[in-house]
Amino acid sequence: MSSAKPSKTVPGTASPLLAWYDRHARVLPWRISPDERAHGVVADPYRVWLSEIMLQQTTVQAVKPYFAAFVTRWPTVEDLAAAETEDVMKAWAGLGYYSRARNLKRCADVVAEDHGGRFPDTEEGLLTLPGVGPYTAAAIAAIAFDRPAAVVDGNIERVFTRLFEFETPLPSAKSEIRTFVAAATPADRPGDFAQALMDLGATICTPRRPACALCPLTGDCQARKSGRQEQFPVKLPKKAKPVRLGAAFVAERGDGAVLLVKRPDKGLLGGMTGLPTTNWTVRADGETGAKSAPFQAEWRSKGVISHVFTHFELRLEVFHAVVTAIPDHEGWWSDSDSLPGEALPTVMKKALGAAYPALFRKGKS
DNA sequence: GAGCCGTGGAT
DNA sequence: TATCCAAGGCT
């Protein structure tokens, strides 16, 4: 239940917002500026789609270099469809949420093979694509095809829960928010409208200390009127993150190459490259020491690295050994030339950094 | 609906 | 240091 009353329209919202956007739109590599759009420049659906997938739960700053690398290497959806999944995973390494990368490749294949290389231009059609959910379908429909879709992301949730003081905690309030956004979305410039709301949420209507004095909607905002703008959105309390323990093993061959393995396609770090590890368990038992190594060697501890995942914290003890006899073990040996290009998630680079401080500093390659 | 799924920057 | 959280989707 919400204290906000349903309404068919949101008077005065679209016009001042778009006027603000015309002056203050962020300049982003995947974006058509409001001026360009007004002069008939059309967005490239491939770039809009790629950016929207990368931006899921990920900051603009983190996405920028990945977006540039992808569009340089794979300028069109056909190019991406022709790529090897393994190369896509390598290019995605470090960005997180790796199921996005697999779905990205699957989606490119579907668009290339089933849709003649053209993205569906309706929300319903886009929703059928792998990795494209309600938000992304609406965003692509609005931004790439200028359709009046109700785009609701985290920014827009924050803006609307403040405008109308939604007391219902997220995520329960989502459907109600969507109704309000749909009512507010104009038939004219729906793509710019959605991007304007997101820019407003990112730069003015921020989670903490929103700059209400600079907001084009400040006169329409109920939370601002009552001075409770920082109380919204209301969210359910979060669960504490348990700690899991484990061990990782850096086996070095005589020539310096390191043994790597491919992780299962599903689950944590699915489809990515990693070091051989134990299972990661909440119990500090015999499965976390050198004796749990995949094969016999002169294992020496190189310390414990800590890494925080979405739903648990990992403390990983890293063991290193120079192996003389080549062990019978799955995987491949990667030398110093190929190692930086492997599909290694950040936690694995951290573990390698414990064994080779000079090569992997702070988890970077 | 709720759990799973990464990472790095800001405060 | 601890906490939050950023253009969510899948199961």
UniProtKB/TrEMBL annotation:
E.C. no: 3.2.2.31
InterPro entries: A/G_AdeGlyc_MutY, DNA_glycosylase, Endonuclease-III-like_CS2, Endonuclease3_FeS-loop_motif, Endouclease-III_FeS-bd_BS, HhH-GPD_domain, HhH_base_excis_C, HhH_motif
Highest taxon above the source species: Bacteria
Reaction it catalyzes: Hydrolyzes free adenine bases from 7,8-dihydro-8-oxoguanine:adenine mismatched double-stranded DNA, leaving an apurinic site
One Pfam family of this chain: EndIII_4Fe-2S
Location of the HhH-GPD domain: 54-203
Cofactor(s) it depends on: [4Fe-4S] cluster
Cofactor: how bound: Binds 1 [4Fe-4S] cluster.
Keywords linked to the UniProt accession: 4Fe-4S, DNA damage, DNA repair, Glycosidase, Hydrolase, Iron, Iron-sulfur, Metal-binding
Family, similarity comment: Belongs to the Nth/MutY family.
Primary role: Adenine glycosylase active on G-A mispairs. MutY also corrects error-prone DNA synthesis past GO lesions which are due to the oxidatively damaged form of guanine: 7,8-dihydro-8-oxoguanine (8-oxo-dGTP).
Name recorded for this polypeptide: Adenine DNA glycosylase
